Amino acid sequence: MDEFTSIAYWTSGRQPLEWQRERGVEQGIGDDAAVITLPAVTCGLTADAHMVLAVDTMVEHVHFNSITMADEDIGYKALACNVSDIAAMGAIPLHALVAISVPKSYDVDRIRRLYDGIYACADKYGVAIIGGDTTSAPSHLTISVTVTGAVEAGRALKRSGARPGDALFVTGPIGMSAAGLHLLQHAGEAEQSGYSRLIAAHQRPAPSVRAGRLLLQSGACTSLNDSSDGLASEVWEIAEASGVRLLIDEQALPKSGSMAAYAARAGVPPLDWMLYGGEDYILTGTVTGEDAAEVREAFLREGLPFYVIGQVKTGDPGVELLLSDEGFGQSQHSGAARGGRGSRRTILIEKRGYNHFSTVNG
Amino acid sequence: MDEFTSIAYWTSGRQPLEWQRERGVEQGIGDDAAVITLPAVTCGLTADAHMVLAVDTMVEHVHFNSITMADEDIGYKALACNVSDIAAMGAIPLHALVAISVPKSYDVDRIRRLYDGIYACADKYGVAIIGGDTTSAPSHLTISVTVTGAVEAGRALKRSGARPGDALFVTGPIGMSAAGLHLLQHAGEAEQSGYSRLIAAHQRPAPSVRAGRLLLQSGACTSLNDSSDGLASEVWEIAEASGVRLLIDEQALPKSGSMAAYAARAGVPPLDWMLYGGEDYILTGTVTGEDAAEVREAFLREGLPFYVIGQVKTGDPGVELLLSDEGFGQSQHSGAARGGRGSRRTILIEKRGYNHFSTVNG
């Protein structure tokens, strides 16, 4: 099969033309570029909607390998992590372009399975696949996905609006993806089967599109990020962009029971995965303090979790952690102790997470 | 330097905020996603402009290596080949996102030089760099650029509108990039210095944005492609998408003098580079036969070249070449001879070019 036949084998007949048209697609795969009209009306937005654009890359042996991800998972997650970036702006995902560089030794059916995953995620989140590029590669697979979305003009949720008095929140338990990755790398099949939710959290993350829309519609959300690089890194970004100090209460961090159980078994301090693990694709951000309870109610009405985990303070940009009574246990933290609050200590936490040039993943 | 510091070192202060705002940028680099409003007014388009999106990837050791491209050239060309896709729709380029996967052994200044090239191209074509993603890679650099553009609603120039009687054209000489690549791979520095235009054609291609706009404004352009994969492959795409047969007249193909001179010296049939070389980033397409002379005049008034190289016929989709008197010389063609036209023979030409799965570059 040549390049053009392969692309047709991977993509044709996957999404009906009418379904794509509802998403504003005038010209999809098959020309020099895709052509779209911003479908404000289909999205229920005003005509002057803004467009949101993001790109994320997954590289074999960096983000995945044959032990941690099946081919379908690679495709699914490559799109899901991009949809998460759209969700983190409070926007509605619409279109995606897929750039893929494939070693010559990979057969076309392997890439077709990868596209099975892409289209499974696309169907779930209503994303039209409108174009892409396919090249060969001397070694390792690279997949880079670009997504578009739409948001009410002037209302995209950025990182920079957190103000003292705001409440800091997360929209789901954290550290599950890192625990799943640890399981895939270190545990046998029998043990893995007992923790399928952790493995699914790593392989098939669920971007928080509905949560992002609820936050935007609440009118109370002052800053928002997704937790792709780990909670510590993401809240640091909010602190720096907003020029505020954030305090996280360790006791308020939502901990999944299976993550805690596996952490104990593996001898890993769960807080390491929760703060530095990343790839959970939940949302973290701030809402005005007086509205936090109401936002939480709105989430609960839709069956979605919402946890207040701390607050915004004045002070130099940075992130503090109020330790639980038992202290920090075995975890490594280089931040200096900042004095007591009753019997509980507050420490500064580092700005690190999955950083591609200087640190390692948890 | 960590990832965030590196990105700032490569990108900050490059494009003034006001300059980006004129291109509709509400939020550029520095959040989960970029936010734009389609700047129809600044482009001089109607308010219901359509948006055009394309992505193209360049992979080290596939598209370039340290012999063929300096770091600045890699960045310049990675954006230029995307701008060319926008030009090939008759659209105006506006924004770009840059996804780059970098081996750990590459230092930050090398990538900064690559960004120097990206921004040099961005400035030349008025493209706002609004986001991206940076990851590490186990080996070889991969750069994937996504571009947006705007075009009058419903008027994007596709591949599918060629009709019998139309004239087939190119907007510049072809084969120069392939000749430049051959020089870089095979010739010494002294010889290279005599052919700087060929080398520039390979390293710093000039996408045909103005030509694309002229073609759209003429109202006479029925199909359009850029020649990224080589003329043979691109006109084949038009033939197949339009359901027509195309005839190229070898004598009408615009041949650069330096390309012909170097081809003779290197012992390569120039037609191989002209038909199968690719990466020239000129435009090829069709205009209605009765308007061809007028379109050519419009190009000449702006100092731009325009060559009619053949015509659209009825018949099974395919591409024929009317050989010049002296025949095809040493070049390899597997197409069957199709009988004479006076003393000149017509052959079928293959649908090949730079195809990442089955063939080699000329």
Automatic annotation (TrEMBL), chains A, B:
UniProt pathway: Cofactor biosynthesis; thiamine diphosphate biosynthesis; thiamine diphosphate from thiamine phosphate: step 1/1
Catalytic activity from the UniProt record: thiamine phosphate + ATP = thiamine diphosphate + ADP
GO MF, one example: thiamine-phosphate kinase activity
Binding site for substrate: 63, 279, 354
Function field: Catalyzes the ATP-dependent phosphorylation of thiamine-monophosphate (TMP) to form thiamine-pyrophosphate (TPP), the active form of vitamin B1.
PANTHER family: THIAMINE-MONOPHOSPHATE KINASE (PTHR30270:SF0)
Gene behind the chain: thiL
Protein known as: Thiamine-monophosphate kinase
Domain PurM-like C-terminal: 163-316
Protein keywords: ATP-binding, Kinase, Magnesium, Metal-binding, Nucleotide-binding, Thiamine biosynthesis, Transferase
Note: Reaction mechanism of ThiL seems to utilize a direct, inline transfer of the gamma-phosphate of ATP to TMP rather than a phosphorylated enzyme intermediate.
Residues holding Mg(2+) 4: 32, 85
